[in-house]
Amino acid sequence: MVPAQWYLLLAAAVFCIGVFGVLTRSNALMFLMSVELMLNAANINFVAFSLQWGNVTGQTFGLFTMAIAAAEVAIGIGIILVLYRNFRDTDVTSATTMRW
Amino acid sequence: MNPWIAIGALAVMGVGIPLGMMAVSAILRPSVPEQGKSAIYESGEIPTGTTRIRFNIQYYMVALLFVIFDIETVLIFPWTVIYRSALESGVGLGKVLFPMLLFIGILTMPLVWAWRNGAVEWVKSPRATSRKVEGES
Amino acid sequence: MSLPSVTATLLQSGGALPEWTALAPTLALALTALALLLVDSISPETKNNALLAGTTAVGSFVSLAFSGWYLAAGTGQSGTGGEIVLYGEALVVDGMYLFFSAIFASVAAMVAIASYDYLAGKEYQGEFYALTMLAATGMTLMASANSLASAFVALELASLPSYALVAFLKKNKGSVEAGLKYFLIGALSSAIFVFGISLVYAVTGSLLFSDVAEALGETELVGVAGVGVLMIAGGFAFKTASVPFHFWAPEAYEGAPAPISGFLSSASKAAGFAVAFRVFVEAFSLSAIPEGINWVILFQILAVVTMTLGNFAAATQDTVKRMLAYSSIGQAGYVLIGLAALAGGASSQNGDVMGAAMAHLFVYGFMNTGAFLFIALTEHWGIGRTFEDFNGLASKAPMACAAMALFMFSLAGLPVGGGFFSKYFLFANAVFAGFWWLAALGAINSALSLFYYSRVVKAMWIEDATSEFEIRSKPVGLYAGIMIAAVGTFLLLPAFGPIIETAQTAASALFGA
Amino acid sequence: MAAFDYAPVIVLLPFLSFLVAIGTAIFARGKNVLPKGGALPGIVAMAGALLLSIWMFVTVEAQGAYDQTLYTWASGPGEGTFTLTFGVLVDQLSAMMLVIVTLVSLLVHVFSLGYMNDEDETGLPRYYAGLGLFSASMLGFVVADNLLMAFMFFELVGLCSWLLIGFWFREPGPPSAAKKAFLVTRFGDYFFLIGVVAVFATFGTSQFSPIGGMEAFPVLAEEALTGSAEGINTFGFDAATWFNIVGLLVLGGVVGKSAQFPLHTWLPDAMEGPTPVSALIHAATMVAAGVFLVARMYGFYALIPTTLAIIAFIGGFTALFAATMGVVKREIKQVLAYSTISQYGYMMLALGGGGYVAATFHLMTHAFFKALLFLGAGSVIIAMHHNENMWDMGGLKERMPVTYYTFLSGSLALAGIFPFAGFWSKDEVLYETLVHGLGGSPLLLAAYAMGLLAVFFTGFYTFRMVLLTFHGEPRSETARNPHGVRWNVKGPLVVLGVLAATAGFANLVPVEKLTGANVDFLHDWLYHGPETLNGEHYSTLLHDVAGYTAADFSVLISAAVSLGMALAGVGLAWMLYNDPSPEEHTAKLGAVKDLWYHNYYQDEFQVWLAETGGLGIARGSDKFDQGVVDGVVNGVSSVSLFSGSRVKRVQTGVVSNYAALLTLGVVVLMVALGLYGGWFL
């Protein structure tokens, strides 16, 4: 069996890639995808440690995460859609009417 | 035996087979360069524009409806796995079946709502009456 | 309530009602949401605002009534056999759940009543109310979550409708921008939150609070667990708009429809605190957690930075709504004292401090919602957003302006409303618990807050109108919402005793005292 | 106790007239709604109050005193808290004072018809409103049954004096005089206020006499000094020392209101007000309030001989000091003003010297003859077309006989000539001081000496005034053809003239000594008060606690000496000024004349004191306030606003930056907590 810390490292790496995407991408969809990556990093942990601990809590929770991620994306795309209609752009940095 | 050997073998096979096929075909086939061969295959249509085209937003609604069923399936799956064994171990039918019926019932409600609000109607022109077409969730 | 009555023992624990009825406050809200969806499915084009708002308000009041009844009857409280655990320990009903449910339901009711006018003539009314109710359902579930899984699901159930609600005004750039920012920061935060959960799961192998606490006590992976705890705290910090997860708040509150701003800054914030209180006291309890994971210090930092940043930024705002948004961040800083002024071991002060924080949230639910509803009223009238635009408003609408002055002074902690006592008890209990410096910082920040709160009152009551504006109508719903909030704020001054008593009893029960 | 149920009405009647007059002044401006400009409601109210007061007086005689709490406006829960009440205390002292105040006030109202209405003054409703409120405040003060209530009405009296002295506010003098009166008395009241707080802090009550569940502070103080004190907080001082401090603090208010040295300077300036107001202020209300307060709480002062000696010394000194200044004045009202200061000095002397009855007696007789003198002066002033300079008068005797004879009666009383009222009371004041001084208090003897010397000056300046005003040849055209006065001026003068001649018969102590007849009525009256508020109790206290003993000394010798001094003064005045065209003899006094003429440079000295000391302190405080306090406040606020404006720049509006800052925040927290908790080991 693969030692647990490797899963942790893998998940951390995926999570960091997600964070990197969040920080560098200004396209709203890419932002969303990066967040999905972060969620999936969590899922890796859940599934891996579900196996590790021998219970299905983690796996079930992974399913929940996926469901919620899907719902999140549904809402997100809706918001991005109205963003495009109002600002003619899907660039998250374009909407800066409110600040300070 | 190290369990990684199997994974390594799988990886070698996975990469080796396509590479091998391409190599073999490159060796065997005659080389006759022609413009039509390097064009993108579009079932006979002449390709225009780039790959980055916009899809009609109404696909979004379809995608969302798909998500509903997708999630439904995902969440029903563990239930199906334990359904029979739960029944066999003596848990009553009401306790096993009813929660899932409730869940599906709750999920049905938004589906009906989306249907009634026109999520599945395909509007010809997106500029024409677009009311209540792309309502969220 | 510490008084067990005869009916109390007979409700759920005595078998008069099935156990699941203990969740009635949540169920009432959820059923209201489904009913609203049903109405909207039957006639999608309906603009029957009165029906929709009425249904929402009635549902909220029913939920509030259940909470009040159960609180009085002692459901889930020590007098009647302690907390009621449901659904494989995923949910729990105790005094704290009922207390917070009462906050959510009353805020939701006020928002619904006020939205009757605010939404007049707008599209998608059914969806608006349904989403509000869904979010409220999520909030009550947050207060009852007993496992990290249900906490996460409940948190998302509260968050996702909120995103849509903030961006509800689809043609309004501000609303859309606010929704986008709220959503993006929310998505990022929930990713961090769920990753934190996964790390804690990795260390403990369970998501149930009690099991987590047990396993954390024996773990050697302090680092992983610590990072997990920190990330989970981040998720709550997002919900409560605490630094550094607060960035969404000023924009979201400013851009959102004003009733939603009130809903989010009062109820949603309270929900964040509700789940944070339970998670940190039960799952990461100070008595069980390894030495290295000192989350009290974390919350001390958060409290200080949050209240300072919120108040300082609020002091320099030009628009009233954004000022309120920042002040709401500052208020979150005060409530964080409820987590920051805790001491290890079984100190009886812990329950008192946290109870005071809960009581502050209760009062805050009225006064802050009321303030945002007043903003909704001004938006309804179409007068501007800056302080100058409010000049001389009192001569046109004295009732509403008097209520607004009450909210402002109560928020600042002057003895005109319940805000005085709640803040006083919060700081006093922090001092009793030995954290006088937190209380002192809070008091200094309160003094600063008086400056910007009184600016609003000054503009309305003292300044002369600079521009001519006409008040076309006196909308009944908005006025009713504001007056409910005002009466609540005012009555909580004399009636603060039972509130703080209930809150402190509920909090002490959480600490197992 | 039906009669006493109407006691509050005495206060409310003048207040009602105030409301009527002020209502007219506000709502019917310029319209002559009230006949006589509001005088009639005032006269009716005061007449009613007088009748009620007499009823009270008779009832007190028949049934004894009355003390009732009317309204509790603040009460603490449980032990150790204060209960603040309004109550009415009608005992022998206050019943007598009620009659005096209402009588004088009534006469002043009537006189005002002549002095104000007949002279076509404007703003009459305001004037009568002021008189009504003034009377109401004083009456409220008189019936107050606790020190705090007394203080409130004491302050109201001060406010009214400000309103009335500054009645002619369009002229330059009156507003400044009003301001001065208000500020100087306020200065004293400041100490009084601290005294009230000290009384509360010490005793937990400020009742004058025990009532219901509340104890009285003089009684508590007595118990403290006689050894059975409980629950008295003396702030670490010896009880006697602390009581002296409290007594002196309250005395501050007395000195200010009763115009005793060094806070007497406001009173001569207050002559800028209408003359009837001066009569009211000096005879019955404001100035009397100070002395009355000491008499009211004499049960407390009788316990502290040090303060008593100070009171006596201040009184004796003020009596002499003011009398000397009266000698050189040119204006008739100025002479009267200094005589007022001087006479109140006598009352203080009596109080300090252990003569409670004597002081009360002099308060009564003085109220009559000083009201008379002021009203007489007012009559003269009407006749002289508001010229007050005595050197422009002369020969008015023939032209206004009623005024002359009544004024003469008052003057004889003031000078202390047998058998006018002032003789009896002043004699008793001096006698009491003398016997207690001989009984072992040398300080009292010094005060007595000053008081005795002042008798001479009093006789002199009084008759200088009479001679210059009424005798000799007219020295100006107006004096030859004076403006006539009507019944409304003459009536009050006659009433008071008779009283000035006869009021002394209320307490004929020397006669009693001579004949053995029981004719010291006032003495008997005041000795039959409530248990802790009567003269007998006070003399016991004085003897037992304060250690005052009365030496055996003949009252006749004392009376003869003071009468001789008075006659000497009168004789000197007669010698110098009984001339058809008298000359100013003041030049003979040399440098002393300037000193007296400038009132010992007290005004200048106090202004200098205020400018050097006060202004210095004020400047320092201002610097501190502007620099340190404001600086800190402004600094904090500008630092807050500046840092606020910086802090909010973090909110750039770009959501990617938010994400970056959020991540940064999490990383920083992670590193900090990780290093702190050792996660990375």
UniProtKB/TrEMBL annotation, chain A:
UniProt main location, coarse: membrane
UniProt KW Membrane keyword: yes
Transmembrane segments: 6-23, 30-49, 61-84
InterPro entries, per database record: NADH_UbQ_OxRdtase_chain4L/K, NUOK/Mnh_C1-like
Keywords: Membrane, Oxidoreductase, Transmembrane, Transmembrane helix, Transport
Subcellular location: Membrane
Alphabetized GO MF terms: NADH dehydrogenase (quinone) (non-electrogenic) activity
Domain of life: Archaea
This enzyme's EC code(s): 1.6.5.9
Entry membrane topology: Multi-pass membrane protein
Family assignment from sequence similarity: Belongs to the complex I subunit 4L family.
Record-linked NCBIfam families: PRK05715.1-2, PRK05715.1-5
Descriptive protein name: NADH-quinone oxidoreductase subunit NuoK
Gene it is expressed from: nuoK
Automatic annotation (TrEMBL), chain B:
Pfam family, one: Oxidored_q4
Assigned keywords, A-Z: Membrane, Transmembrane, Transmembrane helix, Transport
Subcellular location field: Membrane
GO (cellular component) term, any one: membrane
Domain of life: Archaea
Major location category of this protein: membrane
Signal peptide: none
InterPro entries reported in the protein's UniProt record: NADH_UbQ/plastoQ_OxRdtase_su3, NDAH_ubi_oxred_su3_sf
Transmembrane segments: 6-28, 59-84, 96-115
Family: Belongs to the complex I subunit 3 family.
Protein name: NADH-quinone oxidoreductase subunit A
UniProtKB/TrEMBL annotation, chain C:
Superkingdom of source: Archaea
Cellular component terms per the entry's GO annotation: membrane
Keywords (A to Z) from UniProt: Membrane, Transmembrane, Transmembrane helix
Entries under InterPro entries matching the protein: NADH-Q_OxRdtase_suN/2, ND/Mrp_TM
Main location: membrane
NADH:quinone oxidoreductase/Mrp antiporter transmembrane domain location: 145-449
Membrane topology: Multi-pass membrane protein
Membrane spanning stretches: 20-39, 51-72, 96-116, 128-145, 151-170, 182-209, 221-238, 270-289, 295-316, 323-345, 357-378, 399-421, 427-453, 476-496
Location relative to the cell: Membrane
Record-linked HAMAP family: NDH1_NuoN_1 (MF_00445)
Protein name: NADH-quinone oxidoreductase subunit N
Native species: Halobium salinum
TrEMBL record, chain D:
Domain of life: Archaea
Residue ranges of every copy of the NADH-Ubiquinone oxidoreductase (complex I) chain 5 N-terminal domain listed in the record: 80-128
Membrane topology: Multi-pass membrane protein
Gene3D superfamilies: 1.20.5.2700
Domain NADH:quinone oxidoreductase/Mrp antiporter transmembrane: 144-433
Entry-linked Pfam families: Proton_antipo_M (PF00361), Proton_antipo_N (PF00662)
Coiled coil: none
Keywords: Membrane, Transmembrane, Transmembrane helix
Annotated localization: Membrane
Transmembrane domains' residue ranges: 6-27, 39-58, 93-115, 127-144, 150-169, 190-208, 239-256, 277-295, 301-323, 335-357, 363-383, 404-425, 445-470, 491-509, 553-577, 658-679
PANTHER family per record: NADH-UBIQUINONE OXIDOREDUCTASE CHAIN 5
Protein name according to UniProt: NADH-quinone oxidoreductase subunit L
Recorded name of the encoding gene: nuoL
